[in-house]
Amino acid sequence: MEVDSVAQRADTSVGLIYRHFGSRAGLIGAVVDDFYARFRTEALEINPAPGGTFAERERRRTELYVAFHYADPLARIIVHNLHLDADVAAMEARHRTEMIQLAERVMALGQARGEIPADRDPAFVAAMMIGGMREVLGVALSGEQWPDQEVTAAKLWVLVAGVAGVDPG
User: Fold this and answer.
1) 33, exposed or middle or buried, with CB in 10 Å at 0-12, 13-18, 19+?
2) Exposed, middle or buried by CB within 10 Å (0-12, 13-18, 19+), for 78?
């Protein structure tokens, strides 16, 4: 991404972009922060099945996770290319850490309610889930032809359920 082309498409000056964002990495970081804020609001920080079991909530959350990535035009870029800029990669890593911490709290709550086996380490389970989902979506969104969204969500649910220790059925 070149700042000149962004300025041209935004019908503004390069100087204004640099004045507001400080650098190219600052601009990209703002886009990344916006992506993750929307993602957390739409898929992670909600109860997608009020009154449901852990498995019902997390299956629905997995579907929302996939739907968000399939619908957002930035998802393909964010799951693939952010490591190319060290500053942006650090910002993205912070978001992943926050997602893992959120998932860890969800896992611990599931354990406290007796819905997840007590022998699972919530931090490990959370890291496996977030990392696995990210990598699978990276593969799914990498080609010209994407796999069916519902099939991707169903396969990811099997992964999440297996790691969490719940019946995927």
Assistant:
1) middle
2) buried
Correct CATH for 29-164 of 3.20.20.150, 3.40.1190.20, 1.10.357.10, 2.120.10.30: 1.10.357.10
Going from N- to C-terminal start, the domains of the chain cover 29-164
CB 156 within 8 A of CB 131: no
What does pTM read for this prediction? 0.87
Which of 12-21, 48-57, 148-157 has the least mean pLDDT? Answer: 12-21
> pLDDT tens-digit profile of 117-145?
999 999 999 999 999 999 999 999 998 89
